[in-house]
Design goal:
This protein is an alpha/beta fold. It contains 5 helices and 5 strands.
Length: about 150
């Protein structure tokens, strides 16, 4: 299985970038990972134009997990169970999409196979990226029975 992370903009703060890289390194012990950063929208652009850029780079055979405030809120053990289900289904690639500040276009919402909510709270994109990577790493430690999750 391979995880692709597609998000708008770059992680600019060096501290968030270091955390992102650390959890990506840890996660890479369990699954192949790739990050695709899409250019931030100009002020005159809409979420539809962002959506088109996202659609252009999505692998059409990929299972798409959209981070969405209206998505399913899972506990860490439930996330581990969901990943195990994806593995049992034989999914080759799961793409996690984090949209821009205005959310995602209807086209991206419709394309998503699973919607995941990290919280009812609002986070910066940099925070959401690190939280997502950490929770995926935590899920794999649960699956493998490693002590990290305790």
């Amino acid at each position: 299985m391979r995880f692709r992370f597609v998000w708008i903009g770059k992680t600019k703060d060096k501290n968030w970038k270091a955390l992102q890289e650390e959890y990506l390194r840890r996660l890479s012990r369990f699954v192949k990972c790739e990050i695709v950063e899409i250019k931030d929208s100009a002020t005159h652009e809409t979420k539809e134009s962002e959506g088109k850029r996202i659609m252009e780079i999505l692998n059409q055979k990929s299972f798409v997990c959209l981070l969405d405030v209206k998505g399913r809120a899972l506990t860490s053990p439930e996330m581990a169970h969901e990943i195990e289900n994806w593995q049992r289904r034989g999914l080759k690639e799961v793409t996690f999409v984090i949209g821009g500040a205005s959310g995602v276009s209807a086209q991206i919402s419709e394309k998503s196979d699973f919607r995941l909510s990290l919280s009812f709270l609002t986070f910066t994109h940099e925070t959401a990226r690190v939280l997502m990577l950490e929770q995926l790493y935590r899920a794999f430690t649960i699956i493998k029975g490693f002590p990290y999750q305790k």
